[in-house]
Amino acid sequence: MDLLSRDRQTVTLQALDHHRGLPVTVRVLRPHEATEREREEFLQDAELAMSLSSRVNEPGSIRVTDYGQDGPVAFLVKTEFDPARQPARQFRPHMTVRVGSDLLWSEAEATVQAAAEVGEEEGVAEDEVSTERYPALPRRAVPQRQTTPTGVRDWLAEANALYEQQRYEEALAAYEVAIRSQGNPVEAWTGKGATLMLLGRPEEALAAYDYALRLRPDDPELWNSRASVLHELGRYDEEMYCYDQALALDPNSAFAWSGRGMALAEQNRPEEALLAFDRALVLDPNQSVIWQAMSDTLYSLQRYEEALIAIDRALELESQRASLWDIKGNILRRLKQPDKALPLHERALQLEPRNALYYFDKANDLRDLRRYAEALAAYDEALELDPTLAGAWYNRGNVLAALRMYEDALESYTQALRYDDGLISAWYNKGSLLHELGRYEEALEAFDRALALDAHYIAAWNNKGLSLFALGRLEEALAALDQATAFAPEEPDAWHNKAVVLERLGRSEEARSCQEWVRSLEQQAALRKT
Q1: Lowest CB count within 10 Å: 133, 205, 256, 332, which one?
Q2: Are strands 10-17 and 2-6 parallel, antiparallel or unpaired?
């Protein structure tokens, strides 16, 4: 693990995820330098970043794959997205089950309610803004036609025409001929770069733009194009340099300012990103994609009211784009206004009636409104369009659990895990429901799967301890609860459960000590509320 940077509150490290064999960047909040409020805000921001980035599927983009708290240390993990090796999304539901004085507290109502709360608070990309990455400003990537002598075949013009017809392989071949036969024109290199990008060959595209810049280093549009390629490659420092060069040549380039803002947002520098978006919108206030980018950035800062204003400006400019209505609906749900979010998601569906994600978001609104039967119908619509949508299967399971349809809920969790076996909250909720149904051995298997994904998953250690307790495996139950209290010494439920197990083992003195600590924690919690 190598140190990349350090500031007053955080340390950034380069590391290797041995479980998946991926290089990752770990950002850690320094426990002695941050307040409790700053730690809570850090974790909330990490949760938002993880859910937002879960919808960015471009190779080379940066995704938050994990976050959490290990004792007093809060952290987040991010890595470059590789479609062939997608990292499992991690979630941390807050549900814990407490043991009664000398027997398991097994009232099914508690688990069902907790499962519903998990769905409301955590979910799977359920309460987040869709973050499609758009070019900062729409523009033609193909150069203007050059004149050629009469009777000479104009390969550059032919290449441009093929590009416009989306015949990219043929266009690329024509650009190559133009480069060789028409005096190496910079326009042919530019067209070649744009075509290679559309063919998914960004490294070659970068080389083409590099050559074009050697021919015309004072062209700000070429610097902007090179920046766009570097963004796809995840080389953000170089991307920023390109935007700086473009702005040095043309300080009024709205494209460069907006692109710079998006690059800053990707690097978790949202305040600077907002300044760049502001500058871009002063220069060109009629670009809905910039208003959307500003809305997404404000959302990431939990400035929801301002995010709502920005997305409204985008909708004024482009009211027929379904994704903007969907985003506005998700912002309103984050503002705890699902009744206002629901008609917006229905409007998105009117514009794109075959979009599974819009049905998913509509279902989440109905779930929050406790219109469970309608929510189930909407989840089913989403799954009919996309049976692989793990989040819909998961949230459907939570709604079925709330309706006490336990077997159906278990089947829904199983389907969610079929399509995303790294969905830790589905393993956890499945285990908790199995525990409440008295199927303790199966519950243990589910909790172990959750812990294999996250060894610091406190609730899973706690509930694993309860299942072991129910099976009479007291020493193993104590070991599991030891893990829970070690990772979360401030969690009173785990200490209470540990005290019950110790009492059963005849270790009364240790049990009393645990109960005293529980009372102390509860008193501290009560004081914080006053």
Answers
A1: 133
A2: antiparallel
In sequence order, the 6+-apart residues with CB closer than 8 A to the CB of 462 are: 96, 97, 480, 481, 484, 491, 493, 494, 497
pLDDT tens figures, 171-198 = 999 999 999 988 888 999 999 999 999 9
Terminus-to-terminus CA distance in the chain, angstroms? 42
Please name the residues in contact with 20: beta carbons below 8 A apart, sequence gap of 6 or more.
85, 87, 88
What single-letter DSSP state applies at residue 156? H
313-330 burial, b for 16+ CB within 10 Å, e for fewer?
Answer: bbbebeeebbbbbbbbbb
8 Å CB contact between 184 and 212: no
In this model, does residue 7 exceed pLDDT 70? no
The token pair that represents 354 in the structure block: 């075959």
The continuous run of DSSP H or E covering 56 comes out as none
Report how far apart, in Å, the C-alpha atoms of 252 and of each of 72, 122, 222, 247, 281 are. Answer: 47, 42, 15, 7, 11
Locate 171 and state its tokens.
Answer: 């266009």
> How far apart (Å, rounded) are the C-alpha atoms in residues 148 and 228?
30
97-122: pLDDT as tens digits = 333 333 232 233 333 333 333 343 33
Question: What's the residue count for the chain?
Answer: 530
| 3-class DSSP string for 428-444 | HHHHHHHHHCCCHHHHH
Instruction: Reply yes or no on whether the pLDDT at 74 is more than 90.
Output: no
Q: Are strands 22-29 and 10-17 parallel, antiparallel or unpaired?
A: antiparallel
User: What tokens appear for 195 in the block?
Assistant: 């075509």
Q: Where are the beta strands (DSSP E) in 251-379?
A: none
